[in-house]
């Protein structure tokens, strides 16, 4: 398939569906549209883990954020499968987050409704078992 050929590897792009847990976080800008803010990883069908500094200044306004899951290439609108967009209902910042340090620089974003994970381009991140 041309879309998964040598050109992609030379450009540094992942294959379609290669990292289905990867999402991007968008923040509402002045004109009302959403712009890329940072990346994240899908940990459940209803939550993403991201950097705390990405959302710390707006934790009282979670509706100013949304996530996009299943998008292979943000530069193009035509995808093999549609991406899924979810509004953020709640931001849970690490209780020991401090903006002057990278320690505890983590936040969980809770969606307004779960993602559909029955497609190959959206899935939870693969984490080791506890213990």
UniProtKB/TrEMBL annotation:
This protein's record includes keyword Disulfide bond: yes
Domain Peptidase S1: 9-131
SUPFAM superfamilies given in the database record: Trypsin-like serine proteases (SSF50494)
Highest taxon above the source species: Eukaryota
GO biological process, one term: proteolysis
Presence of keyword Zinc: no
Alphabetized GO MF terms: serine-type endopeptidase activity
Cross-referenced InterPro entries: Peptidase_S1_PA, Peptidase_S1_PA_chymotrypsin, Trypsin_dom, TRYPSIN_HIS
Keyword annotations of the record: Disulfide bond
Family note: Belongs to the peptidase S1 family. CLIP subfamily.
Protein name, UniProt field: Serine proteinase stubble
UniProt source species: Culex pipiens
